[in-house]
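Hello,

Our lab assistant flagged a job as stuck in the queue for most of the afternoon. It eventually completed. Since we weren't sure the result was trustworthy after the delay, we are filing this so someone can double-check. Below is the sequence as submitted and the structure that was eventually returned. Let us know if re-running is recommended.
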Amino acid sequence: MPDSSFPLPSSLLHRRSLLAAALALPLLGHAQAWPARPIVMIVPQAPGGTNDIVGRLVSQKLAEVLGASVVVENRPGAGGNIGTQAVAKAPRDGHTLLMTISSSQAINPALYRKPGFDPVKDFRPIGLIGSVPNVLLAHPGFAAKSVPELISMARGRPDEFRYASAGNGTLNHLLGEMLNSMAGIQLQHVPYKGVAPALNDVLGGQVPLLFGSLPSTLPHIQAGRLRALAVSGAARSPLLPDVPTIGETVPGYNGTLWVGLFAPEGVPAPVLAQLQDGMARALAASDLRTRLEASGVELAGPADRPVPPAQMAALLREDIAKWARIVKASGASLD
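-- returned structure --
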């Protein structure tokens, strides 16, 4: 048996180096070829909602930064599960991404017995965009003009006052359940198949109340078609400085959602790194930041310090635990 420590001839070493280089060329070429086709950014909600608005703004800048085509594809259904499942099962090549909101990624695992995906194990974070407050809105003809007035009217009159939502288990459903629990009232939930039909019925006066995201409802508030009673977050929105938080009336009430971009688990590390870098550069662009802020998004970090993917992953885990407690307390459950 030859001695493995014996030095090899220089000619053999040279041939081995050439062979290794030749074998590496296809791999290198494959990495450099990404993206080989348009990148599909799946939004697991219907058009017109927060995630759709943000996704379309971000996709334009991300395409510019990457020098690639980025196409937004809406795949709504089951509270976001259908589109999320599609990305979880997509090829791990970096051509299919998930633009999602915390209500789908953090609430659904507690709400659905079989959501069809694991929010932590099946995805890798690319970039956290920001948080979005919801607004408790009323039709202009509704009698209550504030949260204290609404609570006063609703106490002792169970199921007399209704609020619309984008569907069972959505964030705007659970925000209403949280208000019911914390304020000791019983607003009646009216689920719709998406935010657009729910919003249309509130605008038309068929249902008086709605928890709606600021980006999707701000134009109606500004035009006077809806009255903003309060925002759901811990602080007032810079876009609605005169509108109080629900927590100013109901201490401890706080419910916001965040928006972020994910890739399926298993995307090659070089491709994931390019996506994370591209997202960071997109979110640093002043024109995108201005448009996001104008739509009601509170950006996650300054232009020169994007939220690290590891911190985004930690936020997801924290929210999963938080909303699991809220869902359990509400008794909500979906198949």
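-- support follow-up --
The delay was a queue issue, not a problem with the job. The result is valid. The chain has two domains: 38-132+256-330, 133-248. The CA atoms of residues 217 and 223 lie 10 Å apart.
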